[in-house]
Amino acid sequence: MVVARPGPNGVEVLLLRRSPASRFAPRYVVFPGGMVDPGDAALALAWFGDPGESVRACAVRELAEEARLALTGGGLLPLADGSSLAEAVGASPPRVEALHEMARWRAPELLEVRFDAWFFAVAANPDTPATPDMAEVDLAWWERPADALASHPLWTALMWPTYRTLEALAGCSSVEEVEALRVTQEAPPPSLLATYRSPEWRR
Q1: What are the CA-CA distances from residue 42 to residues 39, 50, 118 (Å)?
Q2: How far apart are CA 159 and CA 79, in angstroms?
Q3: Strand partners, 7
Q4: Domains of the chain in sequence order
Q5: pLDDT, tens digit, for every residue of 82-105?
Q6: How far is residue 13 from each of residues 53, 77, 108, 111, 175, measured CA to CA in Å?
Q7: Phi and psi (nearest 5°) for 186?
Q8: Which of 38, 15, 17 is nearest to 136 (CA)?
Q9: Which of 9, 28, 27 lies closest to 143 in space, CA to CA?
Q10: Among residues 34, 36, 18, which one has the least CA distance to residue 158?
Q11: Each residue of 1-40: pLDDT tens digit?
Q12: Distance between the two ends of the chain, CA-based, in angstroms?
């Protein structure tokens, strides 16, 4: 989930750092998200009227679990302590149109832990908080994409899909442009691929 909000110096996106105990990409900077669960089809049916939208339902659920933000029909709302996503959504479920498909990335065969990931763009208000769950992720913050690229190196803090998405996001001057953005999967150029080193979690 690429969550974007207007900031004082341009568009900011919500970033998370995976906890050191994570099996996949520990300490890497990522967008909120995770694996589709068996129950996501039921959420998709309840929210979108279509169990085939389980990937979108997963994105909504993971955003709530990792960053304590609930996507409702009225927009993003912070989850209060002790409250659940079901309680926050209530009778105002999110709409399919609120999750704009930005990209789809399939991991190359060189990775032992592979993924097939959809990226969705969601708009947030300027005062939307960033709250890590302190389980899957240990940090959550808002940052301009260009600053994130300058602060977090490729291969040691950013995976290629995240890096490439941040590059594309850095060219957006508004949240509306983020929502309209499409990022096509592409292989790293040879100059960047030459710096690739397989860390422990990929072996």
Answers
A1: 5, 9, 19
A2: 29
A3: 10
A4: 2-202 (3.90.79.10)
A5: 889 999 998 899 999 999 999 999
A6: 24, 16, 26, 27, 9
A7: -150, 155
A8: 17
A9: 9
A10: 18
A11: 999 999 999 999 999 999 998 888 899 999 999 999 999 9
A12: 27
The token pair at 40 is 């996501």
Distance CA 175, CA 166 (A): 14
d(CA 169, CA 174): 10
Report the C-alpha gap between 119 and 140 in whole angstroms: 18
Best CA proximity match to 72, nearest among 63, 81, 179: 63
Amino acid (1-letter code) at residue 151: S
What's the mean per-residue pLDDT of the chain?
Answer: 93
Q: How many CB atoms lie within 10 A of CB 199?
A: 13
- Strand partners of residue 116: 106
Q: Which residues contact 25 (CB under 8 A, 6 or more apart)?
A: 18, 159, 201
pLDDT for the residue 113: 64
In angstroms, how far apart are the furthest CA atoms of the chain? 51
The amino acid occupying position 165 is T
The tens digit of pLDDT for each residue in 120-161 reads 999 999 999 989 999 999 999 999 999 999 999 999 999 999
Q: Where do we find the tokens 């060189």? A: 110
